[in-house]
Structure formats: structure tokens, C-alpha cells
Design a protein that fits this description.
Elements: E1 2-5, H1 20-28, E2 32-36, H2 47-53, E3 56-58, H3 61-67, E4 70-72, H4 79-82, E5 90-93, H5 101-110, E6 113-116, H6 131-149, E7 170-174, H7 178-189, E8 193-198, H8 201-211, E9 216-219, H9 222-231, E10 234-237, H10 252-255, E11 263-266, E12 287-290, E13 293-296, H11 306-327, H12 329-335, H13 337-340, E14 343-346, E15 349-350, H14 353-359, H15 366-370
Parallel strand pairs: 1-2, 1-4, 2-3, 4-5, 5-6, 7-8, 7-10, 8-9, 10-11, 11-13
Antiparallel strand pairs: 6-14, 12-13, 14-15
Length: about 375
């Protein structure tokens, strides 16, 4: 199979879909790889690393999309990229379709077979291709939130860890999954007073058992959430429903109960965001203010630490990418129901229920797609 990896073109996205190590694996198994020139430079991988691994360097993304049997990326294809996709081609990347009807329609029009990292599962019910970026984003959230809390950036002017005689910042993390746990650990490590909320009692027991003393837990009822948000200096939105739009846990009305200059960090913005007042921002212009509350809603947070993120993502995606290349998408998905869960579109059909339901569009099952 000919595998192609274009340079990412989303604003300040420095990650790359394939590492040189992934190229070595693909070439060793008899596949060919084409990489757009300078695709890996932002993550610290120059073209010479890819050629040494056995890849061919090409000048343009257009050549990647025209020639490749499978296109491997990081972020969802942008409008100019979507126009170059075609039926019979595999697209393997993050998609986050539920809050993005324009992208969904373009993928359906192209007929491409699109497999989304974020809906591939594992035998434990986890999301193995989302987890590494969730870990990165979770650890980044308190860092960017503490920067936003600085007075010069519109925040309250509160130091995360406080000083003797001055209380630390109060941080509330909504969601006790991978993002939330990592956010709570880092915020607590910075000395903040941290509370993490979740609706799963087993999950909260686990967090108490493993991290007891580092941060507190609270049941994520509407009343508890409202009370905690009103007291918080920083709120991290970290709730995910796989493949679906994120629930709106903080309404605009709730902003009026918060301290002026408090900070909302919405790590779920790729899936539409946890806060009613969220809209996606970029690393160029990451924060904005609504009703006196500062919002940090960068849609590709892990892109800020591109080398770490690229290597972590590559470690996770490589086995699935190789299965797709070695077997073709149909056989690979037939052999692995967890990879089949990643199938989001095929031949003009939505193939993931949560996406169809979120967008109010017709969909078929992945199993039915295998018969097409």
C-alpha cells in the first residue's frame, strides 16, 4: 500500500501524522511511504530523517492526496484538503465530526473511507488513540489556565500555589477520565486546591484510592457543579462522550455567579465544548472574555508540545495503521471490532451512530459498511 502523510495546515499545528519510526515499520512490511516536504519539521523531524527511514519526500500535499491509498494525518482535514479526498481512499486521523456538519458533508461527498482516531476502542472500553493526546491536553490545561489567571492576561491575578498566608487557587475539574485525572494531578502538583467531579462512583473511589490527599472528589450533580463553579478560580472542562458532542455543563447564566476574572479551560472544545459560551480558538489568539470570565478554548492544545505529542500519538496509532496497510481496511476492521468502531464514513454514508445522532443525519452501522 502507498501511505501518504501531508504537512498539517491547521493554525499553529506542528504535529505530524507519521514519525520516522512509523516509516521504518511500514517500509519493512513492504509498503511505500510519501511525506510532504517539511511535514515533520515542527515536531523536530527534518526531511532527512524520513528519507533515511525509507520514505519519498514530495513537494506538495496535492501529490499526497492524489497518489496515496491511505492518508495519515493528525487533525481533521481542512476544507482545501477535503476537496482532494476520493472514494476508495482511506483517511486515518482525528475527525471530531459530531460538532462539525461542514466537514461531515464534505467527507460524505468525497466518498472517502474515514477512520477516526477518537472512536477506536480497546478491550477495556478505553479510547487508545485518544488517550495519549488526552494525557497531554490534561497536563497542559493547568499550565495554560495558570497563565490565563495572570492579571495581564485578563485573569484574577491568582497564583496557583499561593504563598504562606495566602490561599492557593481553587481549581475545579469537570470529568474524572484521562483528561481530568491528568489535569487534577498537575494542578495539585502546582499547589492548587483541586476538586474533580464525576458521575461514576467507582471512578471516584478509584481516584480517592490512588490519589487520596492530592485532590478532592465530588459527585457531578447539577447542584454540586453550580456551587463548585461559583467558588472556583479555574474550571477545566474535561468531559467526553465518545464520538458525540460534549455536554454543556456550565451555562452562560452560571458565569454571573463566578468571580470576575475566573478562568474556563475547555479541553473538550474539539467535540463542541463543555461550556455554553465556548468557541474554538487558536494558539495565535487563545483567550477571550465573556461576562467577565476568561475562556481558553484552543482546539489543538497538544500541538503546543508537538514533539512529545507526535511521538506519543505515533506510538499509539502505529499498530492500527499497519493493520490497515497490511490487510486493507475491510479485512482489518472485520478482524478487529475495536478498529471498526473507528469507521466514521464510507462511500457517502455515516457509519458511526453518535455522529449521525448528533448531526440529525442518517447513518448505517459499521458492520453494514463492511458489506458495501
Amino acid at each position: 500500500m502507498l501511505i501518504g502523510c501531508p504537512k498539517e495546515i491547521k493554525n499553529q499545528e506542528y504535529r505530524v501524522g507519521m514519525t520516522p519510526s512509523a516509516v521504518v515499520e511500514a517500509v519493512a512490511r513492504g509498503h511505500s511511504v510519501i511525506i510532504e516536504t517539511n511535514a515533520g519539521i515542527g515536531a523536530g523531524f527534518p526531511d532527512c530523517d524520513y528519507t533515511a527511514a525509507g520514505a519519498e519526500i514530495v513537494d506538495t500535499a496535492a501529490e499526497i492526496f492524489a497518489r496515496a491509498d491511505m492518508v495519515v494525518k493528525v487533525k481533521e482535514p481542512q476544507a482545501v484538503e477535503r476537496k482532494q479526498l476520493r472514494e476508495g481512499q482511506i483517511l486515518f486521523t482525528y475527525l471530531h465530526l459530531a460538532p462539525d456538519p461542514d466537514q461531515t458533508r464534505d467527507l460524505l461527498d468525497s466518498g472517502v473511507t474515514a477512520i477516526a482516531y477518537e472512536t477506536v476502542t480497546d478491550r477495556n472500553g478505553g479510547l487508545p488513540l485518544l488517550a495519549p493526546m488526552s494525557e497531554v491536553a490534561g497536563k497542559l490545561a493547568p499550565q495554560v489556565g495558570s497563565w490565563t489567571l495572570q492579571k495581564a492576561n485578563g485573569g484574577l491575578g491568582v497564583l496557583m500555589g499561593g504563598v504562606p498566608g495566602v490561599a492557593p487557587a481553587k481549581v475545579v475539574v469537570l470529568g474524572g477520565g484521562v483528561v481530568g485525572t491528568n489535569a487534577a494531578r498537575v494542578a495539585a502538583g502546582m499547589g492548587a486546591d483541586v476538586t474533580i467531579t464525576d458521575m461514576s462512583m467507582p471512578r471516584m473511589r478509584y481516584l480517592d484510592d490512588v490519589f487520596g490527599g492530592q485532590f478532592k472528589t465530588a459527585y457531578a450533580s447539577r447542584g454540586n457543579t453550580a456551587d463548585l463553579v461559583a467558588q472556583a478560580d479555574m474550571v477545566v472542562g474535561a468531559v467526553l462522550i465518545p464520538g458525540a458532542a460534549a455536554p454543556k455543563l456550565v451555562s452562560r447564566d452560571m458565569l454571573s455567579t463566578m468571580k470576575p476574572g475566573a478562568v474556563l479551560v475547555d479541553v473538550a472544545i474539539d467535540q463542541g465544548g463543555c461550556f455554553e459560551t465556548s468557541h474554538a480558538t487558536t494558539h495565535d489568539d487563545p483567550i477571550y472574555e465573556v461576562d467577565g470570565i476568561m475562556h481558553y478554548c484552543v482546539a489543538n492544545m497538544p500541538g503546543a508540545v508537538a514533539r512529545t505529542s507526535t511521538i506519543a500519538l505515533g506510538n499509539a496509532t502505529m499498530p492500527f495503521m499497519m493493520a490497515l496497510a497490511n490487510k486493507g481496511w475491510k479485512q482489518a476492521c472485520a478482524d478487529d471490532p475495536h478498529l471498526l468502531n473507528g469507521l466514521n464514513t464510507h462511500k457517502g454514508k455515516i457509519t458511526y451512530a453518535a455522529v449521525g445522532e448528533a448531526l440529525g443525519m442518517d447513518y448505517i452501522s459499521g458492520a453494514d459498511a463492511l458489506k458495501m
